[in-house]
Amino acid sequence: MIKFIVAFIFINMAILPGYCAEDSSFYGRIFIGSAGSGEMYVPYKNSSNDQFQEKKSEKKSDYNGINTAAGNRYSFGYFYGLFQIEAGYFHSSIEEQSFRTYTGKEKSLHSTLSYYDARGGLRLSNTGSTSFQWIHFGARDMKYSASYKDTEAKGLGYSAGYTGWLTLGISDNFDIVGLCEFFYGVYRKNSISWNENFNVETRQSRFMNLSLGAGLQYDPYNLSIILKVCGEKNYISHRGTGGKIAAGADELIFGFEIIYFNNRYRNN
Fold first, then answer.
1. Cα–Cα distance for residue pair 219/188, rounded to 1 Å
2. Torsion 121-125-130-131 (CA) sign
3. CATH code, 2-261
4. Ordered DSSP codes for 178-191
5. Domain spans of the chain?
6. pLDDT in tens, 46-78
7. pLDDT tens digit string along 10-32?
8. Are the C-beta atoms of 38 and 94 separated by less than 8 Å?
9. Strand 243-261 relative to strand 24-46: parallel, antiparallel, unpaired?
10. Residues with pLDDT less than 70, the chain
């Protein structure tokens, strides 16, 4: 996987040696992920010794399927010359999960996670092409809710990342397109609330994303449809008197994404 990402970046660098300040466009992206797998983190108090723990979920023992997560993302942006900005909203859910208490009893779980984010940064491209590299910095406002003891986590933080978009012409009207996107961030302001009292001494958090996609682009309308896999992690943990608690989710979601640019030129 790492070799693939590095190769993708170098291909983009070879194809995109410069930029033109006249290049500009609004664009929109819609990701529909109807299948995937996910795991949750919830806080737990062991009543046998009054110790606090983080519990990571697993698939329910009576569920034989493999589809446990789904999510959608909607975003829009604008670029002009060397600068690109984007704002988006993501929402996902995880079902058919459980964890076992210290007595061995299975507790059913489900959760939802959503966030708003905004990113902006340096964009490198060539005139007449929507192939580009984008090095970006951003902010995120996240909310997570789980069914166990009304668990809720909130995070406000920042990230840094890279997006590469490559188009290769195969005919007058169609291109093959590829997407590679990843970023990493921390929630500088975060909280976990549930139906127990916990004295927080230290806090840790992180969020990250890795997305890969490939598909076709129809040049006359600058419209692309790609198959995409999106890996997402959102995690907040607190340490304090009596142990450690955590909340968040790990998700791997499969779906398709539609991207539209309103450029005045064809993509190639």
1. 42
2. negative
3. 2.40.128.100
4. EEEEEEEEEEEEEE
5. 2-261
6. 888 889 999 999 888 878 778 899 999 999 999
7. 444 444 444 444 678 899 999 99
8. yes
9. antiparallel
10. 1-22, 128, 263-268
